[in-house]
Amino acid sequence: MRENKKTAGASRRKTGRRHPLATVALIAIGLGVTGGAYAAVNTSTASAETQIAAQSTIEEGEKLFQANCATCHGMGAAGTDSGPSLIGVGAAAVDFQVGTGRMPMQMNGPQAEEKPVQFTDEQVKALANYVASLGPGPSIPEDHLTNGGGDASNGAELFRINCAMCHNVAGAGGALTEGKFAPALDTVTGVHIYEAMVTGPQNMPVFNDLNISPEDKRDIITYLQYVQDNRSPGGFELGSLGPVAEGLFIWIFGLGAIVALTVWITAKSN
């Protein structure tokens, strides 16, 4: 009888004993909770720091805007008689106009012309962030859309269909009406080409994603970068104005040279 009681007691003690892996499980759970809390705090802190940095950039951009742009566009960028409203134009429009030196304008004219940039890259981004904070609009494109990694042959076809009538098939630019012109594209960066397509500066139409997809825009940029890197293999380009200009050049100067040579030979023979 005593042996049965001892056996029952030993059995109860064995049943109440913790599993050997219980300690490991408790440690793992503790580490997981601690790590999760640490990550949550760090993420919250990083997010707060990012928001503070973004707000600081916007405030810097506002100061730059008020000092350099508000005369024409108004203190709140709502526009004046001298300049349009910038609310809703987006960061891309500011990055293009200011990043190419077109803004601030040097003088009134048919259109803003490219000139040396007046601000640093950080200041341009600050101005762009400030204007973007005033209303939604096109943003600065991502690198994979502007680095020239697309299909150049598709880009060439799209460029001929949509852009060549103003910019020339080789991107050499061309004259428009009332003293306006389509600028040459031989030195324009991929970012600014993309921004021009989505914002439509000067007389250029807007090519939104329904007109030309982001991938097709990338292909157009790839084609233009190919043209920039591979100049004419045939010698002097004559401004890349096309066969009409080249034919006129040959007609005037080529035949003129032949006539002059004929007159010279005839005069010598007499």
Automatic annotation (TrEMBL):
GO molecular function annotation: heme binding; iron ion binding; quinol-cytochrome-c reductase activity
Subcellular location: Cell membrane
Enzyme class, spelled out: translocase
Binding site for heme c 1: C69, C72, H73
Protein name, per record: Cytochrome bc1 complex cytochrome c subunit
SUPFAM superfamilies named among the record's database cross-references: Cytochrome c (SSF46626)
PTM (free text): Binds 2 heme c groups covalently per subunit.
Organism: Orlajensenia leifsoniae
Domain Cytochrome c: 56-135, 150-228
Bilayer disposition of the protein: Multi-pass membrane protein
InterPro entries: bc1_cytC-su, Cyt_c-like_dom, Cyt_c-like_dom_sf, Cytochrome_c_Oxidase_Subunit
